[in-house]
UniProtKB/TrEMBL annotation:
InterPro entries attached to this UniProt entry: Cyt_c-like_dom, Cyt_c-like_dom_sf, Cytochrome_c_Oxidase_Subunit
Top-level taxon of the source organism: Bacteria
Annotated PANTHER family: CBB3-TYPE CYTOCHROME C OXIDASE SUBUNIT FIXP, CYTOCHROME C4
Occurrences of domain Cytochrome c (ranges): 22-103
Keywords: Electron transport, Heme, Iron, Metal-binding, Transport
High-level lineage: Bacteria, Pseudomonadati, Pseudomonadota, Gammaproteobacteria, Vibrionales
Protein name per the record: C-type cytochrome
């Protein structure tokens, strides 16, 4: 009985890891367009564009939905409106998952 329980737990853990790996991969694929302005792995090199790496998922999705609904109109929001318009709810979740979990390699200082 205990062995059966362990087997089911192992299967559940493997399935969960596979699901998160899939969401990460899909999010990375969908986030390529974001990287044009927000930088590789979500670290912006442009002062006026925020970093996305490490952003909380719920906040990220809420922000994208607010752009889509035109509830965010300040600053450079006009650039985000068409980007958000093209995203489904699942796209938003996947992209938010990716940027929440991606980690950049630290920049090496050769000095």
């Amino acid at each position: 009985m205990f062995t059966t329980y362990l087997c089911f737990c192992s299967i559940a853990v493997i399935a969960a890891e596979s699901s998160t790996n899939t969401q990460y991969s899909q999010g990375k694929e969908k986030a390529v367009v974001c990287m044009t302005c927000h930088g590789v792995d979500g670290i912006s090199t442009i002062d006026t564009y925020p970093n996305l790496q490490g952003q909380k998922q719920a906040y990220f999705v809420a922000a994208l939905k607010a752009y889509k609904l035109r509830q965010r109109n300040d600053g450079l929001a006009i650039l985000m409106h068409p980007q958000a318009d093209s995203l489904s709810d699942q796209d938003m979740l996947d992209i938010a998952y990716y940027f929440n979990h991606v980690k950049s390699e630290p920049i090496k200082n050769d000095n």
